[in-house]
Each structure stands twice: as C-alpha cells, then as structure tokens.
Amino acid sequence: MDDSKIDLIIDKHHAEESALIKVLLDIQDEYGWLSPKALKRVSEKLEVPLARVQQTATFYKAFSLAPKGRHTIHVCNGTSCHLRGAQRVLDKVQELTGIKPGETDPDLKFRLEAVNCLGQCALGPVMEVDGKIYGKMSPKKAAEPLKKYE
Amino acid sequence: MAQIKSPEELEKIRQEVSTQRDPNRPCISICAGSSCLASGAGEVIAAFKAEIEKQGLKADVDTKAAGCPGLCEKAPIVVIYPQKICYVQVTPEDVPEIISQTVVGKKVIERLIYTDPNTGEKAAHEDEIPFFQKQMRLLIGDNMKIDPKSIEDYMAAGGYSALNKVMRDMSAEQVIEEVSKADLRGRSGSGFPAGFKWESCRKSKGDNTKYVICNCHEGDPGAFADRRLLEANPHLIVEGMIIGSYAIGACEAYIFVGDEFPQTVENARLAIEQAEKYGLLGKDILGSGFDLTMEVCIDGGGYVLGESTALMASMEGRIGEPRMKYDHGTDRGLWAKPTVLNNLQTWANVPLIINQGADSFAAIGTEKSKGTRIFSLSGKIKNTGMVEVPMGMTLREVIFDIGGGIPGDKKFKALQVGGPMGGFIPENLLDLHVDFEELNAAGLAMGPGLVVADEDTCIVDMVIYHLNFLANESCGKCTPCREGLKQMLRILNNITEGKGKESDIELLELISEVQQDAALCALGQGASGPLLSTLKHFRDEYEAHIKEKRCPGGVCKALIETLSETSA
User: Fold this and answer.
1) Domain boundaries, chain B
2) CB burial class (10 A; 0-12, 13-18, 19+) of residue B394?
3) For residue B456, what is the nearest residue in chain A, using CA coordinates?
4) Does domain B23-145 fall into CATH 3.40.30.10?
5) CA nearest B455: which of B406, B490, B510, B400?
6) Which chain B residue lies closest to A54 (C-alpha atoms)?
7) Cis peptide leading into A101, omega within 30 of 0?
8) Binary contact (A79, B416; C-beta < 8 A)
9) Does the beta-carbon distance from B319 to A55 stay under 8 Å?
10) From the list A25, A55, A122, which residue is nearest B35 (CB)?
11) Quick one: CA torsion of B343, B349, B354, B358, rounded to 10 degrees?
12) For residue B176, what is the DSSP state?
C-alpha cells in the first residue's frame, strides 16, 4: 500500500501528541483501516509510545485494525431497530455474507458491522451499505440490495 | 462578505437580509434532514429544480433544502410557501403535478396531504397537522424555513438577534443573571442549573484560559434528537455558544459530535465557517474586544464518551476513560482549565432566553422545570420523529396525542425513558409529567429518546439487549461495571433459555446494588437502570420465564420451542 499519505496526514496535524485521535481518524478515512506500519509511523512521528497508539486504536469503535472490505455493511441494532426485528435481519445478512459483525470476508468484498444507532428510526430496521440507507428491512428483503455490490 | 464590526452593522445586515425576502414569493421547502434524504429527498429536490427550469419558473419560484421539521415517519416532507401546504412522502414523480397544480394553480393535491393515522382526517397545512399542532415548537418551529447551510436564512428567521442584544446591551454578568433567572437546566438529563455552572466557571480562579464545550455525542441507541437539531439548525447552537462563551469569558469553544453522523458534522462545520466570515467568531467580535474560536471535534466512537471526564480525555487525545471527579469541570476541565460542558439542547435554549426574556421562558413548564424539551420518538410508534413539547406535558400525551400511539392495533407494553441507563415504565405510569424531579423520583432520567415497546416485546430480552450494549461500551476500568454486567447477563441469558432459578431475581438485585454503590462513573452506576425498573414494573414477566418457562412476548426462542414441544 502507498503510505506516503500517512506522513502528510501527520504533518497536517503538526505531529502533535494531542492530535493522536485525529491523526488516526484521518488515516483510517484514507486507507479504510490502520495497518501495523501506520501505527508504528504514528508512534515515531508523534513521539508517543507504540503501546499507547495501540491502546487508542483498540479503545475507540471507529478504528479497524484489519483491512476493510470494498463495501461496508452496517446493520443498525439501535433500540428502535431491535424492537422492530433487527436481530433477524442481522442473522440473515450474516448468513448471506458468511461473516459475523466485525469481520471481513476473504475476498475483501464486504465488511459487516452491527452499529448502535444510525438515527434513522423511522425507517427501522435499517441496513446501510457504503453510506446508502436501505430502510424497512426484513430477512426477506435483505438479499436484494447486497446483489448490487461487486 | 465583509466582517461585521459592531452590533449596529449586524442589525443592518439582518434587516437587509429580511427585507430582501418577499414573504409572498412562492418557495418550495424540501426537508433535507438525514431521514428524508434516506427516503429519497435528494432526488425530489433535483426533480423540483429540473421541473421549475423546464416550466420556465426559475425567476418566480424558489426551492430550499431545509432543516428537519421532525415528522420523519412521513419522509420526504415538502412545504409550499406562502400557503404552508404540507405534502408528505413525496416522490420525484409527484413533482410536475405539485408545480402545475399547487404552485401555479394554487390547488391542494388531496392524495399528498397528511392523513391522521387514527381519525383518518386530512390536514393540508403544516399548522393543522395534529403531530405539529400539539407540540410547542419554540426551537424547531422554523426549521422548514431555514436551509442549514445558509446563515442568511437563519438571520431572516430572526437569528443572531440575541447575540446582537447581548453585545449591545448586556454585560457578561447580566447574561448569566438572565440565564439563572430563566432557570435553564441542563438538558443532558441531569437538570443541573446552567446559570450556576456558568457563574462558577466565570469566577473560577484556576486560570484565565477557559473553554466551552457542546456535548452532541448522543450515544443512546434509539435517540437522534440532538444530532438532528444540530444538523437542521446549526447556527442556533453556534449563536447560543457564542453568547455563553462571552458570559463565561471563554476563548475557545468546541462542538463534540459522534463520528457516525457525517451530515451533522458537515453542517456544523459550515456554520462555523460562515460565522467566522461574518466576524461573529474570531477576534474582537462585533467590536466588543471579545475573542472566540470554535471547532467541531469528532469522537472516535464509544458510548462512554458522553460522560464529561471521558469526553474531555478524548478531546485531549487520550483514551476516553472516565476519572473520579475530585474537581468540578468548571475549575479543572479540558486541559485542566475551567470548562463549561453543556448538552446541545441546553445551548439551543440560550438565544431564546435572551430574545424573549427570562420571565417569558420561565412561564413555560412546571415549578422547577422550565421551557421545552426536544425528544426523539421511536420504536413501535406511528409517528416516529423529533418533537418539542413544553415541560409538564404527560408522557401519555407525547406518545398518544403527538406520536399517534402504537401501529397495527397492538397493545402498549412499555416506554423506555432516559436511554440505556434509564428505565421502562408500564402504561399506568404514562401520566408522569415531563419534569426533572418527577422523572427522577420514578427512577428515570430525562434523556433525549423515548422508545415505545408493544405487546410483542419481551421485557427480559430488552434488558439483555441494553446490558449487552452497556457491557460492550463499558471502558473496563472498574470491576463493578465490567464484571457486574457480565454476571448479570449470564443470569439473564439463563432465564431466557429456560434455565432460570427462583433465587436469580434476588441475586440480580444484589449485584445491581453493589454496582450502583461502587462503580466509578455514571455508566456503571446507572447500568442497572433497565434491570431494576423492569424488576419493579414487569416482575411478572421474569417470573413467567423462570417459573412457567414461558415468554409472554413470544420472543425467547428456547422457550417458544419448549412450549411447542409440550403442546405437541
């Protein structure tokens, strides 16, 4: 992977220790995940122990330490979606993709995440693929949208 | 645009913006809130623009991508001004007809207007729809008139007049006095008096560098009111925070937003940029000598970040673990400097208080809870959405009169108040009022989300759901929270699998008690909220699972299977 952008991101935040989370968020935005190499580089440039970079990267939910797939599926499991049957939708998506929440399939096609609330309660249960919302989901309806993604 | 140098100049610009607008000019407002966008509002906006162009009406009709008015259930929402005709669930195919029939022909299209789900009555105008009619929309009432991406729209709707008044006529002390007199209380749910907090920070001897933070973390699953308000009308928050910062003597202000809400972040950032361009942020604001910078701060995800000390740790670039509060944040907060952290809805009320005066604000509500409260309604309810109600309204009115009740002739079972650490109440407690003291006394908190559960819900399953959520979100620092939740879940899962013992309930109560006393922060102390409230109000459901091996909601798989085996 091309890691030249990592230094640019770090420099944008003036390599300040306090910008650790912002730097990691930006790197994750750029590459989709935080590679061991990226973490090491951040540790060196910000002069923060690698253990602390690791601690931060594992504490916050936004960070992924494994490569993400080409497409990210979010199945909302907020209270409202849960009441409307989100678990059954999630079960179906797991069956369709063969992966569990937090996992990426071996072809790097999909990554699946169960998220706490997408704020789309009127459309629940909700599934989101690459930022596009699919509302009023049911186990039956979940297969159709996934076919669109390669 | 030129930087505004004095309150007089701001007033002039505000007047100019208002007079340039003809109130009788046709304008098609389409809600561009995230719910409407997810339901195709983007395509509807594009269709309106194309159709106006096609019919050669561009010089006569405006379109506006407006802020969310709250009726998310009927997305996408379109309001035609000046008649205020409201159309719901509009598709791009409806657009040519709306232009020719309504905008040109001034006729109402029956098929597109709101139909009350209970009475079947139709309502053509925004202010006739019962969902809106029964609310008191002091903070969100203008959302459909404001494009969140336009500071001029906000000004035309009266925006920045409070800032003007403050900078022209009021000292910092007078602002604090006004907020104290209005009895504005923290909208996070704690109900802490905002004026008192501001004054403590202002008087703090710790340091002259002071900070102000707006908490829009809103990690509660099933709640979306705060982020939707910031998305719909970001300048309202920016104005409230500038006024607050002036009163406190802060030099830097931060809006702390969750990373999952890209549109909210985008609108907030743009609003700050626009305010900077006008000189409403930056150096020597309106010639007062007061300097303030403002920034949006995105969190890395995690429910515990809503807790004040964890939030500040995260802003400092550390992991978001709460710490013991030996000092008040108003003395040692962000970077150990005096800091005021208020909830987004608290800031939203500030311009209103300044504009209308403390007495008029304090005239709304109950003896100790003043003003309005914005809730998100979700779950098994007909009108999912964002609503603003006066303090003192009963929860029954909010759920049934505004929310329209339960869909599909199902029976009401429980209402969750106060998020994952709040509680569940049965129907006979729905006459509780929206009031800090009354809800606290009932073991609830005034969180932003109200979630309705119907008869098909298993209460034990809902409690497991919330404890699972909290166990995942626990930072793991203190034992009562980390291990207590794990043990509670083990017992509860046994109960839903038909392996419950009669002593389980007592054991659950004991663990809760220890957790409440010994956990480090509010997350652990409050984690047993759903459990204790349901043991109190829905004990029969636990007993049905344990003694009869039966799930009254028909949700727990193991018990349904057992039942069908025995009946077969």
Assistant:
1) 23-145, 159-362, 372-454, 459-567
2) middle
3) A83
4) yes
5) B406
6) B319
7) no
8) yes
9) yes
10) A122
11) -100
12) H
Cβ of A62 within 8 Å of Cβ of B475? The answer is no
- Enter the CATH code of domain B159-362: 3.40.50.11540
Nearest CA in chain B to A76: B221
Phi, psi of B276 (to 5 degrees): -65, -45
Residue A143 forms contact with B (CB below 8 Å):
no
Q: Which residues of A touch B223 (CB under 8 A)?
A: 117
Angle at the Cα of B446 from the Cα atoms of A74 and B539, rounded to 5 degrees: 80
The DSSP-derived string for B127-139 is GGSHHHHTS--TT
Chain A residues closer than 8 Å to B262 by CB: 131
A140 to chain B, closest Cα gap in Å: 19
Query: With contact defined as beta carbons under 8 Å apart, do B269 and B296 qualify?
Result: yes
Q: Which CATH superfamily is domain A71-146 in?
A: Glutaredoxin (3.40.30.10)
Domain positions in chain A: 4-59, 71-146
List the single residue in B with minimal CA-CA distance to A121. B378
- Contact between chains at A25 and B300 (C-beta distance less than 8 A): yes
Q: How many angstroms separate the CA of residue B458 from the nearest CA in chain A?
A: 9
The two domains B372-454 and B459-567 share their CATH topology (first three levels equal): no
Q: Rounded to two decimals, what is the model's pTM? A: 0.94
Mutate to test the interface with A, among B319, B424, B456, B465 (most CBs of A within 10 A): B319
Chain B environment of A63 (Cβ under 8 Å): 300-301
State residue B552 phi and psi, 5-degree precision. -60, -30
Q: What is the ipTM of this complex?
A: 0.89
User: How distant, in Å, are the alpha carbons of B188, B258, B317, B318, B349 from that of B265?
Assistant: 20, 8, 19, 21, 20
pLDDT in tens, chain B (568 residues): 678 999 999 999 999 999 998 889 999 999 999 999 999 999 999 999 999 999 999 999 999 999 999 999 999 999 999 999 999 999 999 999 999 999 999 999 999 999 998 899 999 998 899 999 999 999 999 999 999 999 999 999 999 999 999 999 999 999 999 999 999 999 988 899 999 999 999 999 867 899 999 999 988 888 899 999 999 999 999 999 999 999 999 999 999 998 778 899 999 999 999 999 999 999 999 999 999 999 999 888 888 888 899 999 999 989 888 887 777 888 889 999 999 999 999 999 999 999 999 999 999 999 999 999 999 999 999 999 999 999 999 999 999 999 999 999 899 999 999 988 889 999 999 999 999 999 999 988 888 999 999 999 999 999 999 999 999 988 888 999 999 999 999 999 999 999 999 999 999 999 999 999 999 888 899 999 999 999 999 999 999 999 999 999 999 988 886 655 555 4
CB A129 within 8 A of CB A89: no
Q: Given an 8 Å threshold on Cβ–Cβ distance, is A78 in contact with B222?
A: yes
Element (H, E) at A89: helix A86-97
- Encoding tokens for residue A123? 């459309």
CATH ID of B372-454, from 3.90.1150.10, 3.20.20.140, 3.10.20.600, 3.30.1280.10: 3.10.20.600
Contact residues, chain A, for B36 at CB < 8 Å? none
The matching CATH number, chosen from 1.20.1440.230, 3.10.180.10, 1.10.10.10, 3.40.710.10, for B459-567 is: 1.20.1440.230
| A-B contacts at Cβ under 8 angstroms | 123
